[in-house]
Design brief:
The complex is a heterodimer of chains A (about 425) and B (about 375).
Chain A (H helix, E strand, L loop, with lengths): L1 H12 L3 H29 L7 H26 L7 H19 L1 H25 L4 H24 L18 E2 L4 H9 L6 H12 L2 E2 H19 L1 H11 L1 H6 L4 H26 L12 H11 L4 H19 L2 H25 L3 H20 L5 H19 L20
Antiparallel strand pairs in A: 1-2
Helix pairs in contact in A: 2-15, 3-8, 3-9, 3-12, 3-13, 3-14, 4-5, 4-6, 4-12, 4-13, 5-6, 5-12, 7-8, 9-10, 10-12, 13-14, 13-17, 14-15, 14-17, 15-16
Chain B lengths: L2 H30 L4 H9 L4 H25 L8 H18 L4 H30 L3 H23 L1 E3 L2 E3 L28 H15 L1 H11 L1 H6 L4 H18 L2 H8 L10 H11 L4 H18 L2 H5 L5 H37 L10
Antiparallel strand pairs in B: 1-2
The chains are: A mainly alpha (about 425), B mainly alpha (about 375).
Chain lengths: ~425, ~375
């Protein structure tokens, strides 16, 4: 019995290193492919906005809060605590950012958002780590509490301010932006020429070099920093051990409670940063309900990314992109994206056929056929359907690839000290 | 203290502890915002007038249905976060169906309720199917389906509905299919929704199915010890799908009392957010039919009593969400604390019985 357990936990705690390298290799291989596909679609369909600098910039703006929330989810789930309260912690972050940015400027605002998010994290940590409450239950409660606290305090904070109201703050200062002179202009020029591939690449360069918010850089640094901290340091190994096999970690002298508590509080802080980004960068101030379920989308992005920072960033960019495509001449853009999805599904069907999984192949083929029928019988897609796009994408991805996902082995399980053995 | 007295004290301790914690947290938030907690408590704790009492009953019937829907999943560790989307799609489908008046009078009503249950079950079934065939976590898929439901209903409403002032609404349900409301007090302008009685029916059905049928036994067994359930021949996949369908069907009922008793058409008057509140109510009631009823009443009471806060005390009624959320969180924490205390007590009793007056020895592991 003990042999089986041991073998299982070793395999779970240490995935073969080659697997990770091939995964990273693939991630970069995908990038030119995606660019070519989007560029080709732009040329074929004439939907210019699917790769304009404006769309890509909007995509980044939409993706970063999702990625930060997902990063929060990553910290807590890697330590074995499911965090469905990300949404609530993010709401607290928007409130903290709104209040402190208005009174003390952008950087104190960021700290305020982190502090408010951390309060949500501490609440979740106390409930799940100290008292062993079911993680989902605590998360649901935190979402309720946070939404209530935020709309209540927003009224107290902003009602009497000039330009503010009971549900929104006055306009707030924005964090500084970076423009790289020369590169920004040249890329903008090239992007406007509608050349295959080159213009699309230039649009991407332009989106990254013109008016790039410092907060965006900070967010990207947090993503890569997390990757380094959790996978390249002994601290990270211990933290992940708490999510894979807390009892094994305990027998090796790791204070599992402390690591879990820390991870969940970090999760709240990162959600707070996500809220700050949403409040001061992606919009002009605090507003009730501005998170609009992005905490949940962040959770989905993290699962999509197989509980890894690179993967969750990819997932967030995908969701951010569908969101941005919807906002910028949405009907046309999403209509063009529908073509990509159908072609992708056809490819998936062929792949499934090769793997002799006929049911999935037929299903993919059927959906692709319906999609193509829809594509050719219409010119634009109604706004309501473009609104669904990110969610439907998530469902499709989960349905097609869920078997390749592996969550931390002890994720969501209750742990109590001294039950090892 | 005699054993049965301490047992009662222990089972009452958890909810009491939770309410004290919620009260403290609310008071702290009020003080932090510079409001007067005394005004808050005076408004909340004053006895509601008859018309408010009826509102409380109406709202708690709706919340009860929502709580039951969530509890069916919870009882087998299935987190159906999607009650929100399920009842929205279902209410819309029922409103459209009933407005067609394909059947006469009450028959139309009955058929529409069946349509609502079927639609809710269908919407939940997507998540169930994804879970059993593709292993997709129902937590994520139902969250996605919630968002999809909002957009889908908005689209369909624009297709079949007609503009009425600012809002878009479906055609009204013919008057012969309305369900008469029940006047509870002669001096009250508000009346109890006729279909609010669905809550009672659903509650009875819930406890009978769960406690008296094989299906219910399998469901509870799967929730409490999946390995044991599998060993005794329970097909877990089938159970997941069935309980998801059942949960969705009950979720379909949530919108019925209001649809047939007050609004008579689907439009902007349809309440949203009940699905999420229902989850909290189910948690508060510990997924037990009587507990959920108490939870629904408490939530409905707090919400209704908070309404006049803005006028009477100058406090935003949103504060009540803090009270409700903290109650849920502290109830689960309090039960855990009490459970740990009880286990410790039992261990001491066993040690006492085994070793008598000697020092109780630590059992070797």
């Amino acid at each position: 019995m003990s042999v089986v357990v041991q073998r299982g936990s070793v395999a779970a705690a240490a995935p073969p290193p080659e697997g990770r390298h091939t995964a990273r290799f693939r991630l970069w291989m995908w990038f030119p492919l995606v660019l070519i596909v989007i560029s080709a679609t732009r040329v074929v369909t004439g939907a210019d906005d699917i790769s304009s600098a404006g769309t890509l910039r909007a995509a980044l703006l939409a993706a970063i809060p999702i990625a930060l929330a997902g990063l929060g989810g990553l910290w807590s789930e890697r330590a074995g605590v499911v965090n469905i309260g990300l949404e609530g912690m993010m709401i607290l972050g928007t409130l903290g950012a709104g209040y402190y940015t208005y009174h003390f400027g952008v950087w104190v605002g960021l700290l305020g958002a982190i502090a408010f998010g951390a309060v949500g994290g501490i609440l979740h940590a106390v409930a799940t780590v100290v008292f062993g409450v079911d993680h989902i239950v605590s998360g649901v409660a935190i979402n309720i509490i946070a939404a209530g606290v935020a709309s209540f305090l927003a009224e107290a904070f902003f009602k009497d301010l000039e330009g503010g109201g009971p549900t929104q703050s006055p306009g707030l200062d924005k964090p500084p932006t970076i423009t790289i002179p020369g590169v920004a202009d040249a890329s903008a020029d090239l992007a406007g020429r509608d050349w295959f591939l080159l213009s699309d690449l230039a649009a991407l360069v332009n989106a990254l070099t013109e008016n790039l918010s410092v907060f965006t850089l900070l967010a990207l640094a947090l993503v890569f920093g997390t990757g380094w901290l959790l996978w390249r340091t002994s601290f990270g190994l211990r933290l992940r051990a708490c999510g894979e096999s807390p009892t094994a970690a305990e027998t090796l002298g790791v204070n599992v409670y402390r690591y879990k508590f820390l991870a969940v509080v970090a999760s709240g802080m990162l959600s707070g940063v996500a809220g700050a980004y949403l409040t001061v960068v992606a919009s002009s101030g605090y507003q009730n309900g501005s998170t609009g379920g992005r905490g949940f989308i962040g959770l989905a992005a993290m699962i999509f990314g197989n509980w890894r920072p690179g993967g969750l960033l990819t997932g967030s960019l995908l969701f951010g992109y569908t969101d941005a495509a919807r906002l910028r001449s949405g009907g046309e853009s999403v209509h063009a994206l529908l073509l990509i999805v159908c072609v992708g599904l056809l490819a998936a069907a062929i792949w499934q056929l090769k793997k002799r999984s006929f049911v999935m192949a037929t299903a993919s083929l059927g959906i692709a056929g319906l999609g193509l029928l829809w594509y050719f019988s219409t010119d634009v897609i109604p706004g309501d359907f473009t609104e669904m796009a990110p969610y439907v994408t998530t469902l499709l991805v989960l349905a097609l690839f869920s078997q390749r996902l592996r969550m931390p082995a002890a994720d969501g399980l209750r742990y109590r000290r001294g039950e090892a053995g | 203290m005699t054993p049965w007295m301490s047992k009662i004290a222990l089972s009452l301790a958890a909810p009491l502890l939770a309410f004290v914690a919620a009260g403290l947290a609310t008071t702290l938030v009020l003080l932090g915002a510079g409001d007067n907690p005394a005004d808050f408590w005076r408004t909340i704790l004053s006895w509601p007038e008859n018309r408010n009492l009826v509102n409380i009953l109406n709202y708690s019937a709706i919340l009860y249905l929502s709580g039951l829907a969530a509890a069916i999943g919870f009882r087998m560790n299935l987190f159906n976060i999607g009650v929100e989307g399920q009842y929205r799609v279902a209410t819309f489908a029922a409103a459209v169906f009933a407005s067609q008046a394909l059947l006469p009078g009450a028959l139309n009503t009955l058929a529409a309720v069946v349509v609502a249950m079927a639609t809710g079950a269908l919407w939940a079934g997507i998540a169930g199917l994804l879970r059993v065939t593709r292993g997709v976590s129902e937590v994520i898929s139902t969250i996605m389906l919630n968002a999809i439901a909002v957009a889908l209903v908005a689209y369909l409403l624009r297709k079949v509905g007609s503009r009425e002032g600012q809002a878009i609404v479906t055609d009204p349900i013919p008057e012969s299919s309305w369900v008469p409301n029940i006047p509870l007090f002669s001096d009250s302008v508000t009346t109890f929704f006729g279909l609010g009685l669905l809550a009672v029916v659903a509650g009875v059905a819930f406890s009978v199915v769960l406690n008296r049928t094989r299906f219910g036994f399998n469901l509870r067994a799967t929730g409490q010890a999946e390995a044991a359930a599998v060993a005794s021949g329970v097909d877990v996949k089938k159970m997941v799908l069935y309980s998801m369908l059942l949960s969705g069907a009950v979720a379909g009922l949530i919108g019925m009392p209001q649809l047939f008793g007050a609004s008579h058409q689907y439009g902007s008057t349809i309440q949203t957010g009940i699905g999420f509140t229902g989850i909290a109510v189910a948690l508060l009631g510990r997924n037990n039919p009587w507990g959920i009823a108490a939870g629904a009443l408490i939530f409905a009471y707090l919400t209704e009593q908070a309404n006049p806060l803005g006028i009477l005390a100058g406090i935003s009624p949103d504060i009540i969400a803090v009270t409700q959320g903290v109650v849920v969180l502290s109830v689960v924490i309090a039960y855990e604390v009490v459970r740990r205390y009880r286990v410790k007590l039992e261990q001491q009793e066993v040690a006492q019985a085994l070793f008598g007056e000697r020092e109780p020895q630590e059992a070797s592991r």
